[in-house]
Amino acid sequence: MEPTEGYVKVLGFKLFVRSYGEPTKGTVLCLHGGPGATHDYLLSLEDLAQFGYRIVLMDQLGCGKSDRPRGTSLYTIAHNVEEVEGVRRALKLGRIHLMGSSYGGALAIATALKYQRNLRSLVITGGLASVPLTVREMKRLVQHLTPKAQAAIAK
Prior knowledge:
Layout: E1 4-10, E2 13-20, E3 26-31, E4 53-58, H1 77-90, E5 96-101, H2 103-115, E6 119-125, H3 131-142, H4 147-154
Parallel strand pairs: 3-4, 3-5, 5-6
Antiparallel strand pairs: 1-2, 2-4
Helix pairs in contact: 1-2
């Protein structure tokens, strides 16, 4: 199936989107991990189009083919939430199934908390619900590794 792809203007920036299928059963908006990754590793989700779903993949601001503003002030989960909502609105997707992978899972949860009225469902794959809790747990787990492994992680 050939995708349609292009850019949508959101919050003054161009965000890259790729779409497959027709939304007979609804639209699935897919959020990649990272931050800093691209939508590419989610391309296999296009298979869902054969079951009546429109699959929309996007590159978040600063990632992939999307604009890459300098500085760090825009790279926040709050800004990312508004990007997701901006893409939903720009493409006129209506109520969506929102899927997030890894960091995209945390972003999907944050989006659902603010814009739950715009969601039909929420799917998290390998995501995290709390960055502080995840960082604490990672630090705890590192303490159980060999000194050599701990040094490599610290480096």
